[in-house]
Design a protein that fits this description.
The structure holds 2 protein chains of 2 kinds. By secondary structure, chain A is an alpha/beta fold. Chain A is 45% helix and 13% strand. Chain A has helices spanning 2-24, 46-62, 75-88, 99-107, 129-134, 158-163, 173-183, 201-212, 235-251, 261-269, 281-287, 328-338, 341-350, 372-379, 396-411, 417-434, and strands at 35-40, 66-71, 94-98, 145-150, 153-157, 191-193, 273-278, 297-300, 310-313, 315-321, 384-387. Chain B contains 14 helices and no strands. The longest helix of chain B is centred in the middle third of the chain and has 33 residues, at 99-131. The chains are: A alpha/beta, B mainly alpha. The interface between A and B is large, with 48 and 43 residues.
């Protein structure tokens, strides 16, 4: 009887300890010296995950003592998931760090500064100036190595533009308004512009404003003018937004108040809208469209403001290491592998990203078809000005939600563009003051 | 003298209540008193068996509840955790001062009432229909229960495309039926966006009522209906005087559960509108998620506590009201 009781107690305690062990434990080393790296990606999609797995396979072949366990949460929840893993300090060695997450994650001490370890790394010389620039924060610390860049270009329907009597695609926002209005015909279910009124509506609204203040914009902070005031305080900002909202009223589908990324891309891919402002990753998606042929569309450089200049807000992401990782050396090896040579080129090409390697400048892939507009923009840096937006501010996500919601208010007639700009000006002025 | 103090003293003076009123010798046939359960080794064994479950609940239920609850009183922002000091009721004040909170409360009321009434009526009607015996009843049951197996977020995404103004099947069908001339921007217009998300939720939630009510209906003996038929009761009278009174308890509990679940169900709205346009479809829980996405876990936890308080108050009132009604009818 006694032994049965003892057995019951032992069983209970063992189960309890197992449960508690499961909750807090986790390991990544093996007795034969093999190390398993836990890698988490953020901007997940099936094609990209497949490419990443192939590259990881190549890395594992070169490094038989290192295994990589790739975790691919759904994009919508990925950053929050990574955040939770980083906060708990376990189960994550290397992960995708975005320009918008690098700031808060480094502030909290969750990601590792690789600058000392990467001193003398041969890969630096092969990276473009932009890749080197974005590898370091304002204090020179390296929290991630970018794998590629996102930048806007104008996707347009060549056939619809010529049918409407225009000989060239729009070069400026005013041109776009004119052409999109001419093409718009709701009775035929044909619309001019794939307006972004839903998630991330702020990005395109800010792009218009930046184009209108291009001559006096602070290149290191795309939300600031050279005199230190916000871009939203400039009189040109109001003209910019008035043009932009006319584009919604005269030349966009009414439901685009709620359009986010999927609806915009679908609207262009299924042939119902003539113009779309998007990142290069859409080249691959539109290329697979069955509604429009490859001859019916291409891209044009980003639209300019009244001064003839456009402002390209650069967005990027890359690979970084968790501060709590016990296998930093192995993680660094993986990051170097992904940031060099064929692996870096393959990743950028397959995911339609602006490349990080200098050698890509000679690659014909980036000079033809829809990529040609990016070459034009790269070759004319004074016309297509590259700026850094304050995307690493700790309040960036708060700003996105606030600005998106307010743009919808303007579209629904509940707020005027003037009120919108006044609110944004106050918001950023106060945020910078409180820093 | 304070009456409550007197009562307390009286309770202390009185002998403890017991199942054994007299001395054991006076009642030779009385059963042996039961041994207290949690004593000695027996108690240790029971505790050991309970330990895994208790630990599991403590780790996965109580710890997150306490951890989340205390965040509501701290400056807990994931974007900067270098200062997580106690801030008292600041997060709650921020919520009450935010006009969006009141929009969100109104939306939540529309969302809950607009969803639950049609869900209940349609679910009840389907359950009554499925109670009868007919060919392929099992197949119909499976088809009707199917939506319950799909993720709410996925349903949201499906309905988002169905309600798309330009490419959606809803406008297409309405136009083909000559009910509309121009497409309705369902999710872009604040006047129609809430209707669209409620329709999606009705489609999803009817199933739950059907399952629960059907199970309850099957517990009513056929003899009662036969007796009612012999007495000449019509269908309506049978429904209100036999069916509904017989399953009143299940109905009350099902409605309570659904109110709590619908109140706490952000999935469909998140998939369809993300709370837009301009916060017009945000309910309390979608708003709470949007705050967590900003990293402000302190404010989001405060919203969470407000939700818990509201649902507790509702549950108490609802259970009291339904119990009183049950008491009067019984």
């Amino acid at each position: 009887m006694l032994s049965r009781r003892k057995a019951a107690v032992a069983l209970g305690l063992a189960t309890a300890l197992t449960v508690s062990g499961c909750a807090v434990g986790g390991g990544s080393g093996a007795s034969d010296g093999t190390v398993t790296l836990h890698m988490v990606e953020s901007l997940t999609n099936p094609v990209r995950t497949a490419v990443l797995k192939t590259l990881i396979g190549q890395f594992e072949k070169q490094n038989p003592k290192i295994k990589v366990d790739l975790i691919s949460p759904p994009t919508e929840q990925a950053d929050q998931k990574i955040q939770q893993m980083l906060q708990s300090g376990s189960g994550i060695d290397t992960m995708e760090v975005r320009d918008i997450t690098a700031g808060p994650w480094s502030t909290n001490g969750w990601i590792y500064d690789m600058s000392k370890d990467l001193k003398g790394w041969s890969g630096w010389d092969a990276l473009t100036d932009n890749a080197v620039k974005y590898s370091k924060d304002a204090k020179g610390r390296t929290y991630y190595i970018p794998y590629g860049f996102y930048g806007l270009s104008l996707y347009y329907r060549t056939d619809l533009v010529s049918d409407a009597g225009f000989s060239a695609p729009p070069a400026s926002w005013d041109d776009l308004l004119k052409q999109a209005t001419a093409i718009q015909d709701p009775d035929k279910r044909r619309y001019g512009y794939a307006f972004r009124g839903g998630t991330n509506a702020n990005s395109n609204a800010v792009a218009v404003i930046e184009a209108y203040v291009a001559d006096k914009i602070d290149r290191d902070n795309g939300f600031k003018l050279t005199d230190g005031k916000t871009i939203f305080s400039a009189p040109e900002a109001l003209t910019a937004l008035e043009t932009y909202f006319k584009l919604f009223k005269k030349a966009s589908p009414p439901s685009s108040v709620a359009w986010g990324y999927p609806e915009m891309v679908e609207g262009f891919s299924n042939g119902s809208t003539a113009f779309l402002l998007q990142d290069p990753e859409v080249i691959a998606t539109v290329g697979e469209s069955k509604s429009i042929t490859k001859k019916q569309w291409t891209t044009a450089p980003l639209l300019t403001g009244p001064s003839g200049k456009a402002v390209q807000p650069v967005a990027t992401a890359g690979w970084g290491i968790a501060s709590a990782s016990k296998h930093k050396a192995e993680a660094e090896k993986l990051i170097k592998f992904l940031s060099e040579g064929d692996a870096a080129t393959t990743f950028d090409k397959k995911n339609s990203l602006v490349p990080i390697l200098k050698s890509s400048a000679d690659d014909t892939f980036y000079k033809t078809g829809a990529w040609a507009s990016y070459v034009t923009m790269t070759e004319s840096p004074d016309t297509y000005i590259t700026v850094t937006q304050p995307r690493n501010s700790s309040w960036w996500t708060e700003w996105i939600q606030k600005s998106d919601s307010e743009i919808q208010k303007v579209l629904l007639g509940k707020m005027t563009p003037k009120e919108l700009l006044a609110g944004w000006n106050t918001y950023w002025t106060e945020k910078w003051k409180s820093q | 003298m304070n009456p409550s103090t007197t009562d307390a003293k009286a309770r202390q003076a009185a002998p403890p209540p017991t199942d054994n009123p007299g001395p054991a010798a006076a009642r030779p046939a009385a059963p042996r008193p039961r041994r207290p359960v949690f004593t000695g080794r027996r108690g240790l064994s029971i505790a050991a068996f309970m330990a895994p479950a208790a630990l599991f609940v403590a780790i996965f239920v109580y710890y997150p509840m306490i951890a989340g609850g205390q965040m509501a009183f701290r400056n807990w922002n994931l974007n900067d955790l270098t200062d997580t000091s106690w801030v008292g009721l600041k997060n709650f004040k921020g919520i009450l001062d935010d006009p969006v909170f009141y929009t969100v409360l109104g939306n939540t009321a529309v969302w809950v009432v607009g969803s639950i009434v049609p869900q209940f009526v349609i679910g009840f009607a389907i359950a009554l229909w499925l109670r009868r015996r007919f060919r392929f009843r099992g197949l119909y049951q499976a088809l009707i229960f199917f939506p319950w197996a799909i993720s709410g977020f996925l349903i949201g995404i499906l309905f988002r495309w169905m309600f798309n103004s330009e490419f959606g099947v809803v406008n297409d069908l309405l136009e083909k039926a000559h009910l509309i001339d121009t497409p309705i921007p369902w999710l872009a217009d604040p006047k129609t966006a809430m209707t669209a998300v409620v329709i999606a939720n009705i489609w999803y939630g009817v199933t739950f009522f059907t399952i629960m009510i059907l199970a309850a209906l099957q517990s009513i003996p056929d003899e009662i209906y036969e007796a009612a038929a012999l007495d000449g009761a019509g269908k309506v009278r049978t429904l209100f005087q036999i069916t509904i009174p017989s399953i009143r308890g299940t109905l009350a509990l099902t409605v309570l559960l659904r109110v709590i679940w619908i109140f706490n169900f952000p999935d469909i709205i998140f998939g369809m509108t993300g709370g837009g346009p301009s916060n017009e479809t945000h309910i309390v829980t979608t708003w709470m998620i949007s705050i967590t996405q900003q990293g402000d876990y302190g404010k989001a936890s405060a919203v969470g506590l407000i939700v818990v308080a509201m649902l507790m108050v509702f549950s108490v009132f609802y259970l009291t009201a339904t119990r009183e009604r049950n008491g009067k009818t019984s």
